[in-house]
Design goal:
With 258 residues, the protein is of the alpha/beta class. The protein is built from eleven helices and ten strands. The strands form two sheets. Strands 1-2-3-5-7-10 form a six-stranded mixed β-sheet, with helices on both faces. Strands 4-6-8-9 form a four-stranded mixed β-sheet. The chain is globular and about 65 Å long. The protein starts with 5 loop residues before the first strand and ends in a 9-residue tail after the last helix.
Length: 258
């Protein structure tokens, strides 16, 4: 696919980067942007050379929400037929670890997109929010569900019902982001984290990600059972043999992703 709303590139082996690039619209997530994001994520997910994905916007905005102009005159039937959230589900199904590097505004759909990722590195200028209430609607791509799981009921309810934003430091204190760094270094820090993840055994990373996510959709008993099965499954991989042999032999492992 030829991209017009995003850019893809790689600065380091094993890391695929995606930049949302709609500078005239504060990187608003139009339908075309979402189509391109799905294609980029699925392309990286299918590429055995890619072991971690980083998504970012610009220093001014990760993404300032959905493109309201596309929904202004829509009715219920139009929105149902458009089925725009199916694309969000396809991004959520990405098997490889995903890191969001966030600077500036991450609002509405932009905030929801960061929460589809596995980790978030924020610049000290980042602001997170779900301001949909200000235009007569509510979050629809996970804002009431993932935000509540990330920061708790009280803060999520306040953000959703008032539309107010929280700072990067507030987001860190609430558990929404992994770390906050000066804006000059947020991309560098995100790629450093991605390099660390990409250096690990790919199949183990994939199953570990699945297991952590399972904690949000099942009971403790069900999650522990899922975790054990994934743990045992890894003992049929070449990387498990290599990893344990390398540990015993005091050398660096060479992962095959098999």
């Amino acid at each position: 696919m030829e991209y017009t709303c995003i850019k893809t590139y790689s600065l380091h082996p094993g890391i695929g980067a995606i930049q949302i690039h709609r500078p005239d619209a504060l990187n608003a997530l139009s339908l075309q942007t979402m189509i391109e994001l799905v294609d980029a994520f699925e392309t990286y997910d299918a590429d055995s050379a890619i072991r971690c994905i980083v998504i970012h916007g610009s220093k001014k905005a990760f993404a300032a929400g959905a493109d309201i102009k596309e929904m202004d005159n829509a009715d219920t039937v139009t929105m149902l037929e458009r089925d725009q959230f199916s694309r969000w589900e396809r991004i959520r199904q990405t098997k490889k670890p995903v890191i969001a590097a966030v600077s500036g505004f991450a609002l509405g759909g932009g905030c929801e997109l960061t929460m589809l990722c596995d980790m978030i590195v924020a610049s000290d200028t980042a602001q997170f929010g779900q301001p949909e209430i200000n235009i007569g609607v509510m979050p629809g791509a996970g804002g009431t569900q993932r935000l509540t799981r990330a920061v708790g009921k009280a803060l999520a309810m306040e953000m959703v019902l008032t539309g107010r934003m929280i700072s990067a430091q507030q987001a860190f204190a609430a558990g929404l982001v992994n770390r906050v760094v000066p804006v000059e270094y947020y991309l560098e820090e995100a790629f450093a984290l991605a390099k660390d993840v990409a250096a690990k055994a790919p199949l183990a990373a994939r199953l570990a990600k699945e297991s952590v996510n399972k904690a949000f959709s099942t009971t403790l008993e069900g999650g522990l059972e899922f975790e054990r099965k994934n743990f045992y499954m890894l003992f049929s991989t070449a990387d498990q043999k290599e990893g344990m042999s390398a540990f015993v032999e005091k050398r660096k492992p060479e992962w095959q992703g098999k």
